[in-house]
Every structure is written in C-alpha cells, then in structure tokens.
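User: quick one, fold this
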Amino acid sequence: MTIKRLDHISVVVYDLEGAIAFFTALGMTVEGKGSVEGPWVDRINALEGVQADIVMMRTPDGHGRLEVTKFRNPELIELSPAIAPPNAPGLRSVMFTVESVDDTVARLRAIGAELVGEVAQYEDKYRLCYMRGPAGIIVSLAEELF
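Assistant:
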C-alpha cells in the first residue's frame, strides 16, 4: 500500500480572514496559523520568492483538515473563467456531511455565501446542495436521512 491517509486539501484564497469565517461558520476550527517562505517553498511550488500565510482548519470529528493559503508573493494570478461552473475539469468540490443542510446554508448565507443551484433530495438517503465558497470553490453539503 502506498497511501497512508488523505492529509488535507488546500485552497488558495484572496481573502484569508473571509475564508476562515466561511469555514468556521461551516463548523471547522482553526488548528494552527503560520507563514512560509524560503528555498524549500520555492522549490515545491516552482516559483521564486514565495511568501504565504497558511491556516490549517480541522473538522469537528478531528479527521478532516483543510489548508487555507494566501500568497503574499508572488501575486495571485487570474484564471478564466474566475468562477468555474460545476462542469469544469479539475477539482470539482469539497464535500462535508452536516447535521442540517438548512441550518448550514442559513449560516453560510449570513456571511455572503450563495447556493450554486438549490437544495435537492437524493432518494431517501441525502439532502444535498452546492454552495460557492472562498475563491469560487464549490463546497458540497450532505445531510444523511438514514
């Protein structure tokens, strides 16, 4: 076996504090904060002069982690389209199982998040929705009905 575990998923954002607020409203907690720079960071990113602030966030069960990164140098580059639709190639979404989709959507909407489509039910198993998260990523919410 080559994989021990999925350690974390990383999201690069424009607004670090806004992203922390979003994921805190979702129910995650800040595990740690720090800054990185130096030759090793430059080498793994294939960029020069990297300076970045990183916040590690953890899910309530203690198993899932999300790294939220804000590059101070070099400047962030724009992608086109900046907000990719759900059918764009690449990392599609990050899904969280929540106690209540309705409560979670309300908390996230209170800080400016928007639904991509609408809340829908899949058979008698789940209530699901996609929300637009920091930096335009899709955050999937699933409420188990069983």
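User: anything notable?
Assistant: The longest strand covers residues 29-37.
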